[in-house]
Each structure stands twice: as C-alpha cells, then as structure tokens.
Amino acid sequence: MAQVFMKVDVLFLLATVMAISCSNCVRASEVFVVSGSVAVLPCVTSSSTKHSSAVTWKRIFEREERTVWRRDKSGLEFRPVGQAPHAHCPYPNFGNTNYSLHIEGTREEDGGTYRCEVEGQNFQDVKLHVIKVSLTPAEVFEGDQMTVSCSVTPKIKSVIWQWELNGSPITSSGWKQTYTVDKVSQKDAGIWSCLIKNKETPVLTQEVKASTLLHVKGILVPRDNSDVVYAELGSSVTLPCIFSHEFLLNSSSWKRLSKTSKLPSLFIASSNPGVSGCSSVLRDRSAYIERVQDGDEGTYKCSGQVTGDNNKRVTVERSIQLVTAQVVSSYRNGKTTLTCRISNPTQVTSYEWIHVEYGVNDTQTFTSVQKSTSKVLSIPKEKQLGEWMCRFYNQQQLLGNATYHLQMMSGLEGQEKSTSGNKVVTIIGLCFLFLLLVLIVLQLYKNHRRRKMILQYPAMETIVHLAANEREFRERVKVREKTQNGACGEDL
Question: Among candidates 191, 185, 177, which has minimal Cα distance to 225?
Fold first, then answer.
C-alpha cells in the first residue's frame, strides 16, 4: 500500500514539473511569406517595461540554436559574422512591447523555426514558411512544354492548392502542386499565381498567394491564329505581326494562303528596335495595304525565324484573316435599297444602319435608323440624301463599318432619268446625221471619180475645149452681125 502511494506521489511530482516547465512555453505561430518579400516574425510581450530590455532572435536548426539578431539594453545590435544584414528589429527597446523581426528579401533557405527571447519575458517561437513559384524551363518559347510549380519551405501537410492565370482560376489544375502546359502559346503568358491554404493552421484563415510572370517568346501580336481584320473596300489596313523583343529576328516573310489570287501590294513595317540602344533587335514586321480592293480578302500568314538567348532557333508564324466590307445599292420602282456586303460574315451577329447628316462647319449628326440581324436597308423617301453607314457587330463588340454616299449617287440617278426621257429623240437625230454624212461622202466620191476619169484623156479634153471656144466665138460674131444689120436698117 505504501508503494502505491509512493508511485502516485512520483507521478504527481512529474506532472507538476512538466506543468511548471511548460508554463513558459508558447505554441509556435506560423507565418507564410512569398519569396523575395519582407517577412515579419511577430514577438509581442504582454506588458511594457520601465527600463530597456535585451532581446535576442535565434533560429532553431536541427535542434541547435543559432543567433540571428541580438540587441542589448544599451541599444547596440549584434549580428553573426558573415551574415548579410537583412534581418533587424525596427522598434526601439525602451518602453516597447513589439520586438518583431523583419527579414527583407526572404529566401527559401530562410524558412524554419525562430525563437524570440526578451529579458524578463517568456520566449516565443515562430515558424516561417517561404512560398516560391518557379517555371521550368526558365526561357519559354511558343510550342514548348512548360511546368509551373509551387513550393513551401519547410513543407506542411494538408495543403489546398489552386492555380490562377491573370486572376482567373484554372479548373483543370486539379489542386496539384505542379501544373504542366504541353504546348505553350501566347494565351499562357501573364501572371501565374499559386494559392495555398493550410487546413490544420487556424492562424492561416485566408489563402496565401505567390505569383510569377511568364513571358512567352514568339509573336506577341496577334496572340493566336484566330485574329480577323475587317477593312472597307478602298481604305487602308494593317495586318499586325509583332515579334517578342527578346528575339533576334533572322528573317521574316508574308504569304497568302489562297490558290486563286495573287498576293496584293504589301508594305512591310520598318524595323523598330525592341530594346533601347540595341538596333539589331527587330520586332515589328506588320504588313500594310494602302488600298484594299475587291479580291484581297483571304488568309495571310506571317512567319519568321528567330534566335533566343540560349542560341535556340525557332520558327514562329501567325495566320490572319482579312475580311472586306462594302455597301452596294439598288434602285427599283423609285425606291433605294442598301445592302451591307461582307466577304465572310461568320462572326457577324447584328447590323446597325446609321444616317449621317452634315451641317454648318462640317458638323455631323448621327441617327440610328435600324439595328437588327438584317443586312438590307430600304431607305425612306424623306432621307434620300446624305451619308449612310453600316456597322456590324459580334454580340456587343464592334467589328467594323462601311459607308455609302447617297447624295452623289442620287444626282447620277436623276441624270439617268432625264437622259432616258430623250433617248428616242437622240437615237433618231443620230441616225439622220449618220445618213446625211453618208450621202455627202458618196457625192464627194462620185466627183472625185469623175475628175479622175477625165484626166486620163488630156488630148480629147483639149479638142473639146477648143471646139467649145470656137463655137462660142461664132455665136458672138453672128450676134454682132445681126446687131449691125439692124442698126443700118433703121438709118435707111
């Protein structure tokens, strides 16, 4: 019986010692910080002291305590030899209760357990977790395979992972620590964020986010092969093709993916330096069409061979579709009808017809007349003049527009009406004039032939001429004799 009481006393004494020893223990708090940022390890005492207190920050590494930063009562700070001064306590030690440690430019090797010891106070343990997002490979080209991973140092259990790209969640990531893209495109460029949450840590009530920026080397504009450029016939248009400035552009070219027509006159944009002071880096190779004509619609391809920082050569290309638009008119029974004709209306969902009127000082008044899925507009009689504009949309996004100047065309139609009224009279007059000209030409031809036939016998022409002169002379003599005879008879 005495032995039993002795065992009970021993157990009670052991429990008392453990309770006393653990009375100075505080459960370690956890701090999550993104690599490269400032980590704040909290150390706040319960009450302020009337005199200066010494404070020491230690790191527990494999059950061994190593001093990270220390400050004595006089305010003198101490750091380990050879350690960079990126850890300090910005708060004064006189009359202060906050002795939190600030670590600037946090690295992965800074993760671990830290202990704060303040003179006359209980020590506090803080566990620092460093989160880092990394990309593999570091230099990503279009078409490469890329893996983005999220690491936490030191590791923790029961972690919820979630990936975001430019603020939008990636549902296919599957709550994994790593995410792989088999074929990288410009759509994958941007800010990749890793969101983590430890279910077992009540301190971490919200998600912690770490991010990294991904640059995909290739053609920046357009981002993919789905780009469509709309242009009105007669206007100018630019087909964009801008390479990443990290590239050394060796060669580039434009082709047309149409077998029925030739490549129109393209003006390639001048080479712009991608990096200031490096004129050998080219990136803007856009094509410019000065005047779009009917038949220029189709698909164009921009391609180029480029070299990366690691001397890796890659051929990148983009396909751009050019869609032309115009407004055609038809006039029948005194009514004008306009039709918005688009070479490829696949993406067009609605049309809007706008009447533009010009006032004093070139002021313009825009009036929406019709907005529907119909591309045909019947113009009312009270609005026969002015300019009409056809706008076409994809949902609520404006794709392009085409204009039609009805005022000039109305004058031509009026002129056509007046001309058609005198059409019969004009035809009759032209026929009469033609017949008159034919008769004159025939008469001139006959005279010419007659003179030509006479000139063929010059001797006969002389005889005839002499005989005519002699006959005329005889007649004159006879007339003279008769006149004289008559005068003599009167004298008798």
Answer: 185
The C-alpha atoms of residue 64 and residue 41 are separated, in whole angstroms, by 19
246, 217 in Cβ contact below 8 A?
A: yes
Q: Name which of 304, 192, 291, 314 is nearest 251 in CA terms.
A: 304
| Residue 201: predicted pLDDT | 56
Q: Is the dihedral of CA 10, 15, 21, 23 positive or negative?
A: negative
pTM: 0.64
pLDDT at residue 161 in the model: 83
Q: pLDDT digits over 278-336, tens only?
A: 333 458 889 999 999 998 999 999 998 877 777 778 889 999 999 999 999 888 777 88
244-254 confidence digits (pLDDT tens): 876 667 778 89
Residue 80 or residue 130, greater confidence: 130
Sequence-separated (6 or more) residues with CB below 8 Å from residue 228: 320, 321, 323, 347, 399
Ordered domains of the chain (ranges, CATH): 29-130 (2.60.40.10), 132-218 (2.60.40.10), 220-273+282-323 (2.60.40.10), 326-404 (2.60.40.10)
Per-residue CA distances from 485 to 131, 282, 473, 478 (Å)? 157, 124, 19, 11
Q: What is the 3-state secondary structure (H, E, C) of 67-94?
A: EEEEECCCCCEECCCCCCCCEECCCCCC
Query: Please, are residues 294 and 233 in contact by the beta-carbon 8 Å criterion?
Result: yes
Structure tokens at 262: 């030739």
Contact 324, 278 (CB under 8 A): no
> Length of the chain in residues, anyone?
492
Between 172 and 2, name the one with better pLDDT. 172
